[in-house]
Q: What sequence folds into this?
């Protein structure tokens, strides 16, 4: 495809290529998508443009239900995230919930200080900055800010899972049909996912369930 200067022209042209390639590979692909969605995974990720979950996981449209925001935060009072979780867990009956942070995360890096980012971002990242303060001693032992930002990203994933554990739909589905929660970090420089150990689950598999 010829490179186009205007970004809107570029994405529209790219969509035509995608539609053509997809139809050539499977003539019924789009017709099947009109019949409904049955994703097995709810993905809570960062809004960062470098981590499109369907692409980095080599999945197709319909495979993953998605909620993304700045620094993949899940706040107890966030109605947007809570509504996505309820729909995915209760109505789509996903089997797994993934919270995925990443290296070189702008939100995690910004949370290493209290620099003014503007009212909205200051409020949004306040819980992540609180994590930094809570784990100050641990973070100060790390060699540099890159390492500290990665650790903050990990802690933020684990905190998001702690919040999700308390969501009524998650608690009900975990108890009744073994819904599980998984924490991950995407290494931007390697293009690879790393599964985190989640407190309360089995060691090393990023799993939490009430059983």
A:
């Amino acid at each position: 495809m010829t490179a186009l200067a205007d970004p809107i022209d570029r994405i529209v042209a790219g969509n035509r290529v995608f539609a053509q390639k997809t139809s050539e590979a499977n003539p019924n692909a789009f017709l099947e998508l009109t019949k409904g969605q049955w994703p097995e995974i709810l993905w809570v990720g960062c809004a960062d443009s470098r981590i499109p979950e369907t692409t980095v996981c080599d999945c197709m449209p319909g495979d993953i239900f998605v909620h993304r925001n700045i620094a993949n935060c899940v706040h107890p009072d966030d109605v947007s995230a809570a509504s996505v979780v309820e729909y995915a867990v209760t109505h789509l009956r996903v089997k797994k919930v993934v919270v995925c942070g990443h290296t070189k995360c702008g939100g995690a890096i910004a949370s290493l200080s209290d620099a003014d980012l503007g009212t909205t971002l200051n409020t949004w990242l306040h819980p992540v900055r609180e994590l930094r303060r809570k784990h100050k001693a641990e973070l100060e032992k790390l060699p540099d800010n890159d390492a500290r930002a990665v650790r903050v990203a990990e802690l933020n994933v684990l905190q998001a899972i702690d919040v999700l554990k308390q969501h009524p739909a998650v608690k009900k589905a975990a108890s009744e049909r073994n819904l599980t929660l998984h924490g991950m970090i995407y290494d931007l420089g390697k293009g690879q996912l790393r599964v985190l150990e989640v407190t309360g689950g089995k060691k090393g598999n990023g799993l939490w369930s009430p059983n």
User: Anything to note?
Assistant: Residues 200-206 have pLDDT under 50 and may be disordered.
